[in-house]
Amino acid sequence: MASGDDGAYIRFIMSGEASVMLKDGDEPALSVDIMKSGDIFGEISFLTGRPSPENAELVADEPCSVLEVPAAEFEIILQQNPEFTISLVKNLARKIMRLDRMVLRSRQKKRALQSLISREEHIFPDYVIGDYVRSQLATRIEELAHSDGPVLIIGETGVGKEVLAHAIFRLGHHYKSVFLLLDLLRTRYEQTFQVMRNEELGKERDVVQEQMQLFFGIEEPGLNGRPKVQPGYVELTEDGTLLVRGVEQLEPDVQEELLEVVCGSGTYMRVNGEEPHPARLRLLATTELHPDEITRADHPLLHSLLQRSIVIPPLRRRRREIPGLVSHYISQYCQELRKQIVETPKETLKTLVNYSWPGNDIELSTTLKRAVLVSEGEVLRPQDIYFDLKRVEGTGKFNLLRFQAVRQAMLSPLFPAIFQSAVTPFFFILLVLLFLGPQDPLNNPAALFSWAVGWPVLIVGAFIWSRFWCSLCPIGTLSKLAKKIIALERPFPTALKNRSDLLIAGAVLCIIWFETATGIRNSPFNVGLLLLTMLFSAVIVAVIYERQSWCRYLCGLGGMISVLSKGSFLELRADRNVCISQCSSNECYLGTPQREGCPFGQVAPKLHSNRFCKLCGICVKNCPHGAVNLNLRLPGNEIWEMRHTNTGTAFLIIGMIGGLLSEMAIKMPLYKELTSYLPLPDMLKFTIIFFVVVLTANLMLAIATVFSHRVFDEDFQENYSRYGLALLPIALTGFMAFHLYYLINLGVQLPILVSKNFDFEIFRTLIITVPPWLTHFFQQLLVWLGLLWSLMIMYKLGRGSHERFSTAMYGVMPHMGSAVVLTICVLKSIRFYFYGN
């Protein structure tokens, strides 16, 4: 019976059953009444003279016999049979009341269904069905999809059972109806359903009762005497499909009842109910049990469905389809994450194919998503793949976040904003004084502060608190504020990103050269101009490119601090075991609705160096698993435990030592003798000497590498990189010793200048004079400590490369010799530069 009946006929159902269906818009129709033998349809339109509602129709549930009487003849019957007329009116009144109740119940059930759908996560994993399932199981899938019977899908965790279930739903007759997911493997269901077999019988009955209620609903006495009905999943899935994940969690009694409903009588009764109700649903179930583990006694439902089952093999038995899946996922995640991977080398594919994949397809999916995130170029390298759960992290380290006060400080929204709000105004005061204050550097407090306090604090701070200064840097703070006004968020050019180490090395060496070649220490105005140029450059880069690209790839000052921070005893690292086993959403990189992701674009498990972390604490706040730690470590730990060598970083460290030597060489007699033969401007003379000294230092390392890499039977570039990085302590302590002189001898001028201009007597008490011999002693002590530090790192690197002590020492001796030579050069340069002999 179509909608809109005009009352021309009255119809009596002689046999069979039919449903009165109401449809709301484009949503599936809902059954509001059941008509059986003896019921009448069409009388409402006949009596009111109005057609039946457009959204109502009568649908046969089974073959029916119907007596159809024209309205004119029916009117004669009513006139000739008053008793029949009275009986019809009474039945009509009862029908209307029953229909009203059914409509109300249908609406309540619909609301419960909508609430359930909104509460459950009906979002399927973003991994796909592999070639094996599509080719080998296609016929079986199509056969089961086109039948209305239940289906059991068997497979290990992560093989795509839910994805296959959804595919069967789309191919079946119910694809336009509701699809509900009941996940029995979730924690809240585990607490309810998993029962230890040694527990008392009464408690098991409670579990059975709860499971029965979950599927079949419950009737409870109401306030007005009418039963209060709470529908179960079977009722809510009417004319739709119910997917039960982890069906083996159900108790045998519940499985027996569910089996009777879907394969037997086709009816169910609510808990505490008395009337049977028709069960109109398609049941799909998944289990991780092997078919051999399924027995009739323990799993009656699963055992009966074995004949209607699909078994998906684990990924380790489908290795041939891994390259195809890899290609699909890389393409998908590159588009999603706005990355570009153009090559997957054979070594990477071999790494992926040879892995056992205990988490199957979903582990492959999340692994590749993380690999795309952490990749730094257009090539997906084997070291970008993280799936080794056996790696032990944190040896010899202490997590400061164990202290509640430290953790609360890192999690606070005021960190590090409260420090930034203090430093940024000071930066503008500094600029004003540099431009408008006295141009004599000894009388300009901003210039004195920059060279006597600022530089020493930056160098020493890199050792104490790593790269935290970059979180406070007003240039970075202001560029971040500029992004809130306008942000194009374009990806930083891949070509520059892949050569970021060379860019940073060039920027750092340029700063060291510029400092001496231009004599910028003697010009406050030029210092202010330099800072202003850096600010405008940072703002422009921030507006155009994503995240903090200036700080990450271009800033020379930040690059210098980042390299020196590798020697710090403070680090921020993630527990990779937690990241790999529990995290697939990568909030540390992608961010959350409340906060952005890592400003340097780092994924926490990928972070292995202080160079790429400014201790801003964003990853600590974003991580829902508490996997990020703030560790105290042995200084130099990062150097001898490094996993990936970098030639650019080694060149930069040697370049920094060479730049420092060239800066101090200008006061040595040898410098004057050599440059006297060059009829060139002083800046050009220094530039030549600068490059000669930097290249000579690198040549010294290269000569040592020639002998060393043969002993350890390793690549020249790898040996150069590892032992060049081992010279970092000499570079760090050399710069600390250099700026220690300015801190002691120029820093004392600050309180003198303040007490002179502002007549603050209290500042006179802060004036401390240190004799030159004591300053020189501390400078020498720092440099010698740096040498011992470097020698210790070289020893550890050598023992890590070869078990025999004699062979290891023979291999590191050339590098130790070059370290001693560089240290002596630094000591002599300090003596001539500061003390004239």
TrEMBL record:
Gene3D superfamilies named among the record's database cross-references: 1.10.8.60, Jelly Rolls, P-loop containing nucleotide triphosphate hydrolases
Domain spans labelled Sigma-54 factor interaction: 136-373
Entry annotated with the keyword ATP-binding = yes
Keywords, A to Z, come to:
ATP-binding, Cell membrane, DNA-binding, Iron, Iron-sulfur, Membrane, Metal-binding, Nucleotide-binding, Transmembrane, Transmembrane helix
**MF terms in GO:** ATP binding; DNA binding; iron-sulfur cluster binding; metal ion binding
- Localized where? Cell membrane
The answer on whether this UniProt entry bears the keyword Transcription regulation reads no
InterPro entries in the record: 4Fe4S_Fe-S-bd, 4Fe4S_Fe_S_CS, AAA_lid_NorR, cNMP-bd_dom, cNMP-bd_dom_sf, NosR_regulator, P-loop_NTPase, RmlC-like_jellyroll
Q: Which residues cross the membrane?
A: 414-436, 448-470, 526-545, 649-666, 686-708, 720-744, 777-795, 816-834
User: What are the record's GO terms for cellular component?
Assistant: plasma membrane
Instruction: Locate the coiled-coil region(s) and give their ranges.
Output: none
One biological process term from GO is: regulation of DNA-templated transcription
- The Cyclic nucleotide-binding domain is annotated at 1-95
Question: Which Pfam family, just one, is annotated for this protein?
Answer: Fer4_5
Q: Could you tell me the superkingdom of the organism this chain comes from?
A: Bacteria
In terms of CDD domains, this protein maps to: CAP_ED
- 4Fe-4S ferredoxin-type domain residues are 603-633
Q: Which PROSITE patterns match?
A: 4FE4S_FER_1, 4FE4S_FER_2, CNMP_BINDING_3, SIGMA54_INTERACT_1, SIGMA54_INTERACT_4
Protein name per UniProt = Response regulator with CheY-like receiver, AAA-type ATPase, and DNA-binding domains
